[in-house]
Amino acid sequence: MKSNILKIIVIENDQCLHEAYKYYFETYKDYSLDGIYVSVKEALLDYNNVMPDIILSEVSMPDGCGIEGIGHFRKKDSNVKIIMITADSDFEVVKKAFNKMANGYLTKPVNKHSLHDALDSVKYEGATISNDITKKIISMFQKKSYASFSERENEIIHYLGQGATYKTIADNLFLTPSTINFHIQNIYLKLDVNSKSEALAKLKDLPHFECYV
User: Which Pfam families match (predicted)?
Assistant: First the structure.
């Protein structure tokens, strides 16, 4: 990235968004839009003529080459920065993108301010990710611990919240299903409920005293 003005290409099959991107880049002083393509294949064919600094690519492409395109671009230039953009914030898709060596992942809608911030983050920090995805990642590593329940009961509550069956919980905690059932009945008793759905609904309204990773 030698020039002060970085060259950007966009891969987006939704033609309606092309004008939006053109407008965004007209307002940027430090980034230039050097190409908009409707497929990864089209972008690869023109790649050597542009040699972009940053690639913005839609994840869901008709040819299925959204995330797979990352590898093709890396073969062209191992140092190019790649930001994937999509309406899908599924964490498995996010993980796949970063496993393929993406530098960023943004969820739509993207406006000119959020896009510029993302470009700056990649330029100066080397990576970018949408706030909604960051919150999902954090929540995956945090567990709520309720003061009125034992440590074991809190573990079971955590698995119940994930939709796990009694058997799955038993396997994960190395306990028998009957032992899990015993603890769950105690949880129901403390909450004054008679079912899993009632328990989960009530737990959501309870203040938790500690979050731990």
Answer: GerE, Response_reg
Q: What is the pTM of this model?
A: 0.66
Domain containing residue 191: 143-205
Whether 213 is covered by a domain: the verdict is no
Alpha carbon 52 to its chain's center:
24
Over the range 139-176, which residues count as b (16 or more CB within 10 Å of their CB) and which as e?
eeeebbbbeebeeebbbbbebbeeebebeebbeeeebe
> Would you call 96 exposed, middle or buried from its count of C-beta atoms within 10 A (0-12, 13-18, 19+)?
middle
Q: At what angle do helices 151-161 and 196-204 cross, to 10 degrees?
A: 100
Please indicate, yes or no, whether residues 173 and 109 belong to a single structural domain of this protein: no
Write out the two tokens for 204. Answer: 């959501």
